[in-house]
Design a protein that fits this description.
Cobalt-precorrin-4 Transmethylase, domain 1; alpha/beta; 10 strands; 8 helices; five-stranded parallel beta sheet; Methyltransferase, Cobalt-precorrin-4 Transmethylase, Domain 2
């Protein structure tokens, strides 16, 4: 009998924000697939899980996802890495072993899991896959900063911050705009917000839910040393 694969969202970084179901599934499965951005580095997702769950006796399968190439659209260069991970996962499932692929935040919001999802189903159309939602960095950052994302009929936009050419138009059309991975274009985004008189309406949050989390209700005070890959900005018109 083929094993079942779970895609488990483990929340933004605080292990106490993992759901009861996520913890139960991770206790239950004998194999955990762990995404890594660098081959030689450690996995942030795994370190979060280890703070709340003993992993003794579990098989840990590392999956290398070079995020610079992924975000840059270099899909062809990544086929080899993704197919290696598909092979490793299917090898366990075909032996009847259940496995969990862990991902920071929620599996459906800018996570690594869906780069594999279609490939897995192409190879095994009847594969049993269950997606366990998690608290996203978007929800957690808004809560930690004490702001709401939307009320009533307000419109919300979530987008990578590097869409600078359409940022002003997006800010004009939506009541709340969430900019993901804002670190590399922070200065430009801040300039645009200042020109639109929206700098005072923006909140910058880095490493949400982690021990070194930083929250800035005034983005004019953010320096280069405060910028981080795990960061976002929430801009509200009012």
């Amino acid at each position: 009998m083929t094993g079942k694969l779970y895609a488990v969202g483990i929340g933004p970084g605080d292990p106490e924000l993992m759901t009861i179901k996520a913890v139960r599934i991770l206790k239950q499965v004998p194999c955990i697939v762990v995404p890594k951005g660098r081959e030689e580095g450690s996995s942030l997702a795994l370190s979060i899980v280890q703070k709340i769950l003993p992993l003794d006796g579990k098989e840990i399968v590392e999956a290398f996802f070079p995020m610079k190439k992924t975000m840059g659209g270099e899909r062809e260069d990544l086929d080899h890495q993704w197919n290696e991970t598909v092979d490793a996962v299917l090898n366990r499932l075909d032996r009847g072993t259940d496995a969990a692929f862990i991902t920071i935040g929620d599996p459906g919001i800018y996570s690594t899991f869906f780069y594999l999802y279609d490939r897995l189903l192409e190879r095994r159309p009847s594969l049993a896959i269950e997606i366990i939602p998690g608290i996203s960095s978007i929800n957690a950052a808004a809560a930690r900063a004490g702001v709401y994302l939307g009320l009533g009929n307000e419109r919300i936009a979530i987008l990578p911050a590097n869409y600078l050419e359409s940022l002003q138009e997006t800010l004009e059309k939506f009541d709340t705009v969430v900019l993901m991975k804002v670190n590399k274009v922070f200065d430009t985004v801040r300039e645009i917000l200042e020109k639109m008189d929206l700098a005072g309406n923006a909140v910058y949050v880095a490493r949400t839910g982690m021990e070194d989390e930083r929250i800035y209700n005034d983005i004019r005070t953010v320096g280069k040393e405060d910028l981080n890959y795990f960061s976002l900005m929430i801009v509200r018109k009012r």
